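Q: Sequence in, structure out?
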Amino acid sequence: MRRDNGSTFCEFILLGLPIRPEEQGLFYALFLAMYLTTVLGNLLIILLIRLDSRLHTPMYFFLSHLALTDISFSSVTAPKLLMNMLTQSQSIPYAGCISQVYFFLFFADLDSFLLTSMAYDRYVAICHPLHYTTIMSQSVCTLLVIGSWVLSFAGALVHTVLLARLSFFLDNTLHHFFCDLSALIKLSSSDTSVNELVILIVGSLVITLPFVCILVSYGRIGATILRAPSVKGICKALSTCGSHLSVVSLYYGAIIGLYFVPSSTDTNDKDVIVAVLYTLVTPMLNPFIYSLRNRDMKGALGNMLRRGSFPV
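A: Exactly. Output:
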């Protein structure tokens, strides 16, 4: 990271959330509770899937990876936010900032790919039920997850390498509670045209294209249901797809609100608030969505609460 005059600085200043000082304690307790709920709720999902043999299916295989990703995604920003609120410190080292950008992008991209894999799984289950076990074999599921990790790694690495080459103004203040890529690019004094082009290209590959694939998958699912309409068929589709659709709506709705809805030129408060929903609220709600709307998960959780044991 270079200043325009050739000297260097070793940290950024995060202005944090647009809340009054007297409200810091209240919001600290709220965000701490949300983060702990995210970690414990998603760990519970992973534990249930691991220990209940009835959940050893492709859908829950993907769900366990999604739960792990949600824990990691929140852990990229929440601990630093909580620490800054507790200590009243606003600085983050340059290396820590770049690392935060990388892991934020990595787990955000991974979320997108895993949600797409889950949509494909639901498409095969409903549209090609007789071939489901053949198409969604263990090797195929493993390849989909490995591919998701590799593509997420590559996408995040490209952005991070290009970001590290930029120089910045003497003002190293970010109007955010974490090191957001777009905020850093706006702060840079270098030519960022390459960065912006890569954001457009990579963003299309890791966000737009998966979103289109999800829409196509559910379009085919809807067409299959309409060809043989029945109350039983609709209820089955809702029971298997409802939870996933809810998570997809939260995930992509937050992205659209954060990156595609223009904000005022005078303030970044909207971006910061939407980022809180994206990084803290959505990962926290996923366990509730899958536990409250999914019959298999509720059954596994009920077994644990009643008997304290799982079938193996």
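The longest helix spans residues 193-227.
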